[in-house]
Specification:
The chain has four domains: 84 residues, RNA polymerase II/Efflux pump adaptor protein, barrel-sandwich hybrid domain (OB fold (Dihydrolipoamide Acetyltransferase, E2P), Beta Barrel); 212 residues, FAD/NAD(P)-binding domain, CATH 3.50.50.60; 119 residues, FAD/NAD(P)-binding domain (3-Layer(bba) Sandwich); 112 residues, 2-Layer Sandwich (Enolase-like, domain 1). The strands form seven sheets. Strands 9, 10, 11, 12, 13, 14 and 25 form a seven-stranded mixed beta sheet that branches. It has a five-stranded parallel beta sheet with strand order 16-23-17-18-19. A five-stranded antiparallel beta sheet has the order 26-27-30-29-28, with helices on both faces. It is 25% helix and 26% strand. The longest helix is centred in the middle third of the chain and has 26 residues. The chain is globular and about 90 Å long. It is of the alpha/beta class. The structure holds flavin-adenine dinucleotide. Flavin-adenine dinucleotide binds next to strand 10, helix 2, helix 3, strand 12 and helix 8.
Length: 614
């Protein structure tokens, strides 16, 4: 099967080169490591060698062409065995070669593109409409009243505001509506950003404690809660202010008010002073997000029972703090309060924290949490809450029976509810499911040709970066492009200490679905960098295709796992093979070397960790 040979990197920082000479012709046989083309850059003239043998079936460039690094130069029918030292491994895509249908296990493949398009091969066989086909065509703007907007974005979170910006950048007339005076959504105001600001402080407090073991002694820290709240609010204000400025700079009309759709081309907006106006649009992107789910039995009308928004207000540091739910929000907020001095109890109904993550990754995190929290109770249910003068009485039930305990504050962190039923979507042809998700296809379209939906309201996982990616797809769809959400991985990060992150296929999913995988693990005790920071409890693992070495998933637990996962995400997204990670030079000493060594261990041995092969 034919393979495509692309222009490799010729020197650092160079993104394109001029083809000065073509040394082969269509029909020629070439040897492995034969120079086939010479290219010229500002820095040098460079001979380009093909790493495998074969017969050239197509030349894609001519002398004088300017080609981008990664652009296809030749299509080659490889000779039997490939003719080079690595031929045996060439069944899997290698660096410097665009994965094609011939060399990857995917059903179909897109060619490399020198016009700035992605180079990973994507499965184009799946139905982009995914069961949802808009009924009819979008309303032409000429049919709408004067002053109508090309695009109205309802909700200004990490889905909504990037969508509004992108649409405006493309020359569309755009309004961005949010009921909150500070755009940025849950993420900027009461989610990702304030929680990570507080978690940074929690981490610092841990490190101060740990420094004792290294011979560095600090006084016990005192916490000025008012100043801490100010720091957190300052970060939020800085970022929400930035969103407003960026929007205005692009010509997006930012409207404060609560929007309710009144049909496929119109909505009403109720402003902060109760004033109402109507607005018409060609397309509306619904990006109204989600809200904390608080079941009725916990809604007892006492502000000592909080959702995540209340917990982020940090009114005080309760002595006894109950967290209901062992998901990422519960563990992150529990970590903040534990670091500030609360005795934290986490109650989780199932038998494990962080459903979705592989258990071997959760283990080191759970161990540390058990040491810093008062208690972590699994298979336990909170049956009821009752407010008393002394606190909140919580009745907990488990296999051992029922107990009632008093807590100073309680955080309900059992999930989030999408806002699809709260903004008039039912007046359009778009559908909303029982949970409140607007039903969309992979182009972010609904059954109504004028209505699209993105972010938390458009489905799981409810994560800011997923919302932002969907924003781009929605605007591309509106712009008439061949857009489809075909990303292979959406990274998930839990910002506890240690952090836990994963992307793509997990080992648990592979087992559940009967997918054959090779799992390679590199324990951080073998990492020089982990030793230097005294954080050796971490683990990096790759989940690979056993035949090709293709990286299908990556999981990391350990310090900075949330940053490290980016390399794994790129590997999964681009269809990299383990050799790509293993043979890429990683700076030493860094934690990123654990990805390189995990790559080495897929088919061989990691340099710093020896494991007897069975
Ligand atoms: C404590 C916490 C921590 C989190 N941490 C992370 C994290 O670390 N990483 C991560 O990826 N995700 C995190 N999330 C989730 C993340 O915040 C959401 O996935 C993300 O904000 C969803 O973006 P969105 O644009 O879909 O909606 P949202 O951010 O919810 O924005 C929707 C906006 O629409 C407005 N709105 C709703 N209805 C109307 C209406 N009818 N009219 C006008 N305006 C309306 C809302 O006021 C809101 O501003 C966290 C969430 C919480 C609660």
């Amino acid at each position: 099967m034919a393979r495509e040979f692309v222009l490799p990197e010729v020197s650092e920082g160079v993104t394109e080169a001029d083809v000065s000479e073509i040394l082969v012709a269509e029909g020629d046989s070439v040897e492995a490591n034969q120079v086939v083309v010479e290219v010229e850059t500002e820095k040098a003239v460079a001979p380009v060698e093909i790493p495998f043998a074969g017969t050239i079936t197509k030349l894609h460039v001519a002398a004088g062409d300017t080609v981008a690094i990664g652009a296809v130069l030749l299509t080659v029918e490889p000779s039997e065995g490939g003719g080079d030292a690595k031929a045996a491994a060439d069944a899997a895509p290698q660096k410097n070669e665009v994965p094609t249908a011939a060399n990857t296990p995917a059903e179909t493949a897109a060619p490399a593109d020198a016009d700035g398009a992605r180079t990973g091969d994507y499965d184009t066989s799946a139905d982009p409409f995914d069961g949802v086909r808009p009924e009819g065509s979008p309303t032409p703007m000429s049919d709408l009243p004067e002053g109508a907007y090309d695009v109205v974005v309802l909700g200004g979170g990490p889905g909504g505001y990037p969508a509004a910006f992108d649409a405006a950048d493309r020359g569309m007339k755009v309004a961005l509506i949010d009921e909150n005076p500070k755009p940025g959504g849950v993420c900027l105001r009461v989610g990702c950003i304030p929680s990570k600001t507080l978690l940074h402080v929690a981490k610092l407090l841990h490190e101060v404690e740990e420094a004792e073991q290294w011979g560095v002694h600090f006084e016990k820290p005192t916490i000025d809660l008012a100043q801490l709240r100010e720091f957190k609010s300052g970060v939020v204000n800085q970022l929400t202010g930035g969103v407003s400025q960026l929007g205005k700079g692009r010509g997006v009309e930012i409207i404060e008010g609560r929007g309710t759709l009144t049909g496929s081309n119109s909505l009403t907006i109720k402003g902060p002073k109760g004033d109402e106006r109507e607005l018409h649009f060609g397309r509306c992107i619904v990006a109204v997000g989600s809200q904390p789910a608080v079941p009725k039995i916990f809604d007892i009308g006492d502000d000592r029972v909080m959702d995540s928004t209340g917990a982020l207000e940090l009114k005080d540091v309760p002595e006894k703090f109950l967290v209901v739910g062992g998901g990422y929000i519960g563990l992150e907020m529990g970590s903040v309060y534990a670091a500030l001095g609360s005795k934290v109890t986490v109650v989780e109904m199932t038998d494990g924290l962080l459903p979705g993550a592989d258990r071997d990754l959760v283990k080191p995190l759970q161990k540390r949490i058990e040491a810093s929290f008062d208690r972590v109770l699994m298979n336990t249910k909170v049956e009821s809450l009752k407010a008393t003068d002394a606190g909140i009485d919580a009745t907990l039930s488990s296999a051992d029976g029922e107990t009632t305990e008093t807590f100073d504050r309680v955080l309900i962190a059992i999930g989030r509810r999408p806002n699809g039923k709260t903004c008039g979507v039912e007046t359009t042809k778009a559908e909303v499911d029982d949970r409140g998700f607007v039903t969309v296809n992979r182009r972010m379209e609904t059954a109504d040709p004028n209505i699209l939906a993105i972010g938390d309201v458009a489905g799981e996982p409810m994560l800011a970066h997923k919302a932002t990616r969907e924003a781009k797809i929605a605007v591309e769809t509106i712009a008439g492009e061949d857009a489809v959400f075909d990303n292979r991985g959406i990274p998930a990060v839990v910002f506890t200490d240690p952090e836990l992150a994963w992307v793509g296929l997990t080992e648990t999913e592979a087992k559940r679905d009967g997918i054959k995988v090779t799992v390679s693990k590199f324990p951080w005790a073998a990492s020089g960098r982990a030793q230097t920071i005294d954080r050796t409890e971490g683990l990096t693992k790759l989940i690979c295709d056993p035949d090709t070495g293709r990286v299908l998933g990556v999981g990391i637990v350990g310090a900075n796992a949330g940053e490290l996962i980016a390399e794994g995400t790129l590997a999964v997204e681009m269809g990299a093979v383990a050799a790509d990670l293993a043979e890429t030079i990683h700076a030493h000493p860094t934690l990123s070397e654990t990805l390189m060594e995990s790559g080495e261990a897929v088919f061989g041995q990691a340099t710093h960790f020896f494991k007897k092969k069975r």
